[in-house]
Specification:
The structure holds two protein chains of two kinds.
Chain A lengths: L2 E8 L2 E3 L5 E2 L3 H16 L10 E6 L4 E6 H4 L8 H38 L12
Antiparallel strand pairs in A: 1-2, 1-3, 1-4, 4-5
Chain B lengths: L31 E5 L9 H5 L3 H4 L3 H7 L4 E5 L4 E3 L7 E15 L5 E7 L18 E15 H8 L3 H27 L2 H16 L3 E2 L3 H8 L3 H13 L3 E4 L2 E4 L2 H6 L4 H12 L13
Antiparallel strand pairs in B: 1-2, 2-6, 3-6, 4-5, 4-6, 7-9, 8-9
Helix pairs in contact in B: 5-10, 6-8, 7-8
The chains are: A alpha+beta, B alpha+beta.
């Protein structure tokens, strides 16, 4: 069975699911991601409204995103305009989080490179591993 | 296959194939019996063992001596099912080390922790019917060492041991109070808050800041998917409250973890400390 990794974007950070879960196919992965998102949203009010989930296959290839604003039941009572705004904000924040995380990786890699160039002990490792 | 493994309808519903940390949980048949507590077979080890469980330690010396021959000390590996539904909960466990977790299991194999007991309490039938019908499943959390007694025998001893009767009432009430609070928490609070609370309470009951557990195991206690626990634990780790290793969670900053819980943690702690006078002081308090 293929393995899928479900990473969480929350408040400018990407929380990685390193172990991943084995699921029969992409459809099952979509259902699982939605179920996890619903568990994370349960009773959390608006705190998780702008979170999103990035699902990757075992090679690290991104497959799809789950934007919490699209499935948040607490948004149902709001006007369509508000829901659209929430969905757009969720997408923008997720894009911003990706840029932030990529910048952090670049920063870490640059520090590693500098440390190596100066012959100093390598205290930081690439990609946080 | 361990006898309590249930057939899972959804293969993706991870974390339900066993209650064990390593996935090789053992049944009660593999329990190692150390001997009669305080009896002649464990002479020399008896006196220290009484004090390991504070309910037993709180009993008058005379009462304790007369009860000694009825107890057996058992050592069990993590994840052992002490009692599996539909079998009734007909044994009472007074933990000396580790925690006994009482779980409710649905026909689909989903689990959620109803209550748990560490050295400051006892895992016992909550309702009289628990001695006849199996609603709860009792599982060892962490390596467990406990004094065990058949529930029916304990019941018979209560008439002539008043201090034990009072202690058992308090233990049962502590479990009920936990059940009430867990109901409030599961019904109203986010999984993030519940996870922080579960970690703190388990650490309190185990009396250590290092909890030997896996994320799968925690997911079974909270009734959520393993991935949900992984992601929220990573969030807590980023905040500096905990550190997660493969089969261990270290609490690094108790105050920060407390800030991440809901009000249920302090409410339950206040309730339980009134009930169980044997409950340890909060780890932040200075110890003599």
């Amino acid at each position: 069975m293929p393995r899928f990794h479900f990473h969480l974007r929350a408040r400018g950070s990407l929380h990685c699911d390193r172990d991943g879960s084995e699921l029969p196919d992409l459809q099952a992965a979509r259902a699982y991601a939605r179920a996890v998102a619903e568990e994370l949203m349960r009773h959390s009010g608006h705190a998780t409204r702008h979170w999103s989930m990035l699902v990757e296959d075992e090679t690290g290839q991104p497959l799809f995103d789950v934007f919490f604003a699209d499935i948040d039941p607490s948004l149902a009572s709001h006007s369509p305009q508000y829901r659209l705004l929430a969905a757009q904000t969720c997408r923008r924040l997720s894009a911003l989080t990706d840029v932030l995380c990529a910048a952090r990786v670049t920063q870490t890699e640059s520090r590693t490179l500098l440390a190596r160039a100066r012959g100093k002990p390598q205290l930081v490792y690439a990609r946080g591993e | 296959m361990p006898f309590f493994v249930r057939n899972q309808s959804g293969a993706h519903r991870t974390g339900l194939s066993s209650f064990g940390e390593s996935g090789t949980a053992k049944g009660i048949g593999q329990a190692a019996t150390d001997g009669t507590l305080g009896g002649s077979s464990s002479a020399g080890r008896g006196p220290t063992r009484w004090h390991e469980n504070r309910v037993l330690a709180g009993l008058p010396e005379a009462e304790l001596t007369s009860l000694a021959r009825h107890f057996h000390v058992v050592s069990l590996p993590p994840g052992t099912a002490l009692q599996q539904q539909p079998l009734p909960l007909d044994q009472v466990y007074f933990p000396h080390q580790g925690v006994v977790s009482l779980l409710a299991v649905t026909p689909n194999g989903e689990t959620i922790e109803v209550a748990s007991a560490g050295r400051g309490g006892a895992a016992c039938p909550i309702l009289p019917s628990d001695r006849r019908d199996g609603f709860l499943t009792a599982v060892a959390h962490g390596p467990l060492r406990a004094s065990r007694i058949a529930s029916a025998r304990l019941q018979a001893l209560l008439a002539e041991n008043k201090a034990l009767e009072r202690a058992m009432d308090a233990c049962r009430e502590a479990l009920v109070v936990q059940m009430q609070q867990n109901l409030v928490c599961a019904g109203l609070h986010s999984v993030e808050h519940r996870l922080a609370r579960w970690l703190l309470e388990t650490a309190d009951r185990m009396e250590t800041d290092t909890i030997a557990t896996t994320q799968e195991h925690v997911a079974q206690r909270l009734g959520v998917r393993r991935t949900t626990v992984t992601l929220l634990a990573s969030k807590l780790q980023d905040s500096g409250a905990i550190n997660c290793a493969r089969s261990r969670v270290d609490i690094l900053d108790r105050r920060r973890l407390e800030a991440a819980t809901c009000s249920c943690y302090t409410v339950l702690r206040a309730h339980t400390s009134k009930l169980l006078w044997h409950e340890p002081p909060p780890p932040s308090a200075p110890t003599l």
